[in-house]
Write a structure and sequence with these properties.
Four Helix Bundle (Hemerythrin (Met), subunit A); mainly alpha; 77% helix
Length: 223
Amino acid sequence: MPQSAFVNLPNYITLTRILSIPVLIWILSSSHFSSTNGDRELLASAVFIAASLTDAIDGYLARKRAQVTTIGMLLDPVADKLLIAAAFITLVQFNPRTVPAWMAVIIIGREFLISGLRSIAASEGFTIQASELGKMKMLVQIVSVVACIIDHHWTRLPWYFLNLPVHPIALASIWIMVGLSLVSAADYFVAFWDKISQHSDKRRKRRSFVLSRRRKRNDVSVV
């Protein structure tokens, strides 16, 4: 019997990313976890890292196993946006000295802007490939969220991380994240504008060609 388009391993992995979102929010917002020894921060960091890694795993498996489905293409970006939004909105409350609200608005707003442009591009019949800046943003995103979570409890990393100060790392990573969000959004918008302009030019040329043929036919019929 043919297997359902939804029932495959990549889609299940994507679902785990979505299901991890309320878990992450609960860990960071709940009083059930003690912050005296940093258990909450460590657990939240582990959940976020695991959820972020599923983004690469599900895409890789979908391509390798030839299981790219419409529902998977829909769920994957939705899961990414929800995870990013949940993480930064919760961090505004959890660690406001490092993640002010305006930074979260820029980072989350970038995600919604890209989603909107992708929807318009899809409706026009073309796609825009992810840039290298977008891929770099994903890595910085993991570092910034984890650093901002850890910054809530620790002032320095353990000795096997060279005893580095946490707060400067968290601040630097979140500022880099904001910068990359703005630059990658501008880069994506420029690519979108070029594509939409080319698409509009082709459509105008096609319309002009059709109109010119109709005029020729009308001229012939009049003769």
